[in-house]
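User: I'm writing a tutorial on reading structure tokens. Could you give me a worked example: one chain, its sequence, then its tokens, then a sentence or two explaining what the tokens reveal?
Assistant: Sure. Here is the example chain.
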Amino acid sequence: MPVKVGVLADIHGDIVALDAALGRLHQMGCDPILCTGDLIEMEPFGEEVIQRLKSEKDLICIRGNHERWALERRRRRKDVRSFFEPCSIGDYVGGGIDLSREALAWLATLSGHWEGELKGVKVAMWHARPGSDMEGVKKEETGPELRRRLLEQARAQILIVGHTHVEFELVVNTLPGKILNPGACCGKAYIYRQAGPLIVPDEFRPATFGVLELPSMRFRVFRALDGERVFGTSPDRPCTGT
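And here are its predicted structure tokens:
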């Protein structure tokens, strides 16, 4: 029997989008659910996002750069008094200021990547790309040779990534296989610029999630809040039909 795998990325503290996505993934019968990290940021709901994900029994989650930053900063700031000291832009970007010890301890258990076999298909998950949680895969800059190398580095037939906040499906014909990004499960800015002491958005995108069917490798992306399909079965192009 084929299976449906839910795919989440880049939640960034958006508990509303996460709850909507999880509800739709459960309705669609997705099991397991894979998450590429960046659960938190500067938003006040990082704790709620972590607790919600912790309660998912069939969730496989890795850490993103924001979890790494939060853990690194917490190790630097062991004295609780430091939370009342002025923070720089770099401090805020990492998130995690208001996380509980329990939440931080859970983040510390997350691996930087995951590999497994689902329905006979080798699947790997990295936040940005194999070996990096910062160097994202960009569809327009990832030609056939780079696609092949990335899939070989992942040692998988399916490589799932996040980080760029843009959904795509890249086919690797030579192996064969695919590189997938479900877009960001956050209805907020996906590009930031610094403006004085603040980080403000340049552009907004709807929160999305992905559904991967195995062993067929069919991949679709849906909007979290209304369930509309925004990306479909075509190898590299958005699906405009049903």
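What the tokens reveal: The first strand starts at residue 3 and ends at 8. Residues 78-96, 189-200, 234-242 have pLDDT under 50 and may be disordered.
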